[in-house]
Structures
1.
Amino acid sequence: MNQAQKAPSERAHERKLVIASESYPLQPPRLFQEVSGQSEQATELVANPVFMTVTPGARVWFNGVGTIILDQNDEVVFRFGNTGPARFHEEAVKTHLPGRAMVLGTIGAHCYYHWMVDVLPRLEVIKRAGYDWDSVDHFLVRDFDLGFQKATLEVLGIPASKIVCTKDSPAYTADELLHVELRNFVGMRMHRFVPEFLRSCFLKSEDIQERPQRKIFITRPKGVNRAVLNEQELLSLLTDHGFQEVTMEGYSLFEQAALFASADVIVTTHGGALTNLVYCRPGTKVIELFGEHVFSYYYGLANLCGLDYSAVLRRADQIDLVIDAEVGNRMNNQTETIRQDADINIGALSRALSAIKA
């Protein structure tokens, strides 16, 4: 019997289901412009099952982009990206991690969205599998130099001394390695436990309350990608409709959570600030403004949180990029559009705001 034919009990690693697949209703986005050639709208969001693998005597090559995990028998436990066993074996320096280690990071973990919904919920998964966070001696991430990364782990009680940065030294061995397979797939295969976990960690109970109607516009930080070219026209329209302009820079994790929990209507351009939709009260109205870079991350998240979601597209033929994550993943120009400045469709936004007011 070769290794691939061995029964699970004979293998040098154990992979187990922690959270089963679930399905949730998927409401179509509200649109205020004519669209044509739209794909069929799915009626449910089907979340991927979540697995965890425990590998004694593991070997791992992880730099945040590619990952390969091998067990003691050289069997591939997990592989992501263009990374094969040779990447580990060819690495000159291999650092041993005594005790229990966990691959915490993933591709894109330097972005607020991916850190919050793709990285941190892995801690909830291992807890559900029976592993206390204190029992993990080393947490592998690509890098750990951003304020929100440090702030979140500090709140969760995970000391910086346990963080292992792998960007420059990607090859490790470990007495035991935990790895979670959490595949949210651009927000359209995400479990509802993800926003529920974040709310439990970062939203204070006193901030969950009914408030007078509050309409906020989250501005995009200065000097970042995807600037709004007609920003003054946009701000004038929103001011006329009673919106408060808010810049997120300088807000703590808890302040961001409280702000979104206090809002009845939120308008902002596609970007990481919308990750905070997890803190909104059900029924909150959300209008996402798109330029040329269009993905379904926050459409899926808004549905999981029970929010009233509208999309304002720059072009009507972009609708499939909102409702079908596969379309966005197949496009070849996403590395270009992620940096592209663009106008916001003021006409469609004006109609959306009038509909809310009515």
Note: The mean pLDDT is 91.
2.
Amino acid sequence: MASFDVFEGSAFNMISLTSAINHTEHAPSRLRSSGLFRPRGVNTTKIAIEEKHGSLSLIQTSERGTPPSESANKRRNIKDFRTVHLSRNARLVADEVAGIRAFGSQSELESVMAVYKEREEEKIMEMDLTIERLMLGAISGKILDADDTVIYNLFDEFRVNSPANISFAFSGITQANADNGVINKVCLDIKRQLKKALHGMPTGGMRIKALCGDNFFDALVHNAETMQPYKNWQAAEVLKDRNLAYSTFRYGGITFENYEGTDDGKVAIGTDECRIYVEGVPGLFDIYFAPADTMNFVNTKGLPMYSLPYRDPRDKFWEAEIQSNPLPICTRPKSLPKGVKA
């Protein structure tokens, strides 16, 4: 029968558990798995982002040998942000450990670790879901807490106006005017708008994405202008043996994707809207990770997740705190328009 002595081994120490948790296959999540947010470990809980104002200007010709003209000084602002702190406990009580029987080739350590992993995986899924929601907030311009409190309004932080909603007039498209390319024109305008909003960032590899709510996506693919292109797209996806549930559709140079949110709507896109953003632009989206709040990790570069063990002095329980200290950021929130179904 297993006992609490098993927790004295190296497999349950802070370094081993933290290393293991960062190599675990995390629960599927659209934005987490997309690679959109570049992970950046920092050694403090505070992040400073420098913003440079200024625009390119034409240079007036001058006579050779004359002094060069002066350019206007660029104004710089420093934006301070703090990472958020997320934590959950995975606990094993004494009776659970004592009741584990080692059998066959399975050792006591393996048996206890298997039970602990079950508890840990549940907490990791909760952590993944929470970080997914933070990322969803970052591509929407408002990063929200679990109770919908605004953690950061990126438009306010960067002192820019929220871009006006972009109307997709699906209801006005008929067979008679389908060839006018109403939706295609909207997509072209979006590309121009985003190019300007990125304000000098390298856009050679930019790709425009739109995560869509259910009603928006259905209206997008079931109107006279896009219905036949969508059927052709579907046929190609079937040939690739891809699952068409919550599928994507590329039209007008934008990849639209029906976002699969949670049933309670806490992690979701509004059903009649889409969130538009740009991939492939270095420095546009980052997620910062601060170190755990323990002396062991102070001034070290932050990891995506930590597992911090604790043994009750009375031997009534053993637990590990699953912790993450993330902050996803979009550095050009003017590039985050919302599309609405009209």
Note: Residues 233 and 239 are 10 Å apart (CA to CA).
3.
Amino acid sequence: MGQIENAPFNLYNFHKSLGVLILVLMTVRLIYRLVHGVPPEPKIPAFYRIAGTVTHWALYVLLFLTPISGAIANMFYGASTPFFGLFEIQPFFVKNEDTANFIFARHKLMGFAVGALAIMHIGAALFHYFIRKDGVLQRMLPGS
């Protein structure tokens, strides 16, 4: 029965671990992009290029801010942030549940925004592949 009672806590620790992993992967991705640049722009109307650029950078910003805000809120709550049971990041802020709750509320909104932007991004990639057939999706794939 103990495993069932701890299941929500384990799921929450998994959520926190995923946040740390996303932050690490986004850092590696950003460094790679800065070092290697981006593939050449496809020949598409300016509206699509601008919309893609804005969405792309909004995802970058949110994929950094969302896990950072979650970790900071978690620390203000007085809890450590685990990484898949390998190690834990200990809180280094003075416990303040009001501040934690304030940040957690924004963290939740950012999570919904990431989801919405990701769905929009996937939809746009599929639109370019199946309808416009303009090579935008192929540009995103490795080795393009």
Note: The first helix runs from residue 2 to 36.
4.
Amino acid sequence: MRKREVPVGTTSENVEDDPRFVAALSRGLSVLRAYRRGDQGLSNQELAERTGLAKSTISRLTFTLSSLGYLDYSTLTARYSLSVAALALGFSALGSLAVRDVARPIMQALANRVGCSVALGAPDRRTMVYIEHCQGPGPLQMGIEVGSHIRMTTSAMGRAYLANLEVGDRDRLINELCPDDEAGRAARAGIIRSVDEYRKQGFVTSIGEWKSEVNSVGVPLILHGSQPFALNCGGSALLLKETNLAEVGRDLIDVARQIQRAFRAGT
């Protein structure tokens, strides 16, 4: 019997007990994932804090990764930074995503028409990562680049991804994302509302919830034989008013359909 696949961005509860699971590889990748935009370098202690791994384990992992060329070590600061080799992995991954080339002109046309930002993203554990971004001529520049991560719980892109998951997978991920505190309960309520929006109208909204001055709409993008993606269109609340969101949402649904058709035609 084929084992049930786990959605991208989530982990199976028993995956670490699977004999195929390589714990050492998982820990090594967690070190690489610990780096954030703007980090100039991280010490073993900082990496231990970010990953939750013991400092002794981190020391062995950073030595191995630097020996393999994925981390650079500075003797002046005693910190490790991502190397060009690690950066090349990211560019290789982006280059292999054919959907970017297909989607870019279709997304840019909508961005130009509504004067807002249109982005394509994919789930990365508890966040969404931008893999393509088209900026319209509107006054608010989102300041988000390809490779940036945004919150899954409050962004329209993240909520679109969550709304399209199977119920059990979505509930499990929501429980991981939304702690039982005021912020977590607010995020959970927003996701539940988005699921209802998606069921009724095919798109979701985030009205000042990701950033107070930004409104956005999102839709999932499902391509056969590919990982799940999501699209969003966001802009200044002064330009992208609540009263306009339904129209933009319908436009974004059409953009997703155009990308699906073009992707099928090119594969």
Note: The longest helix spans residues 245-266.
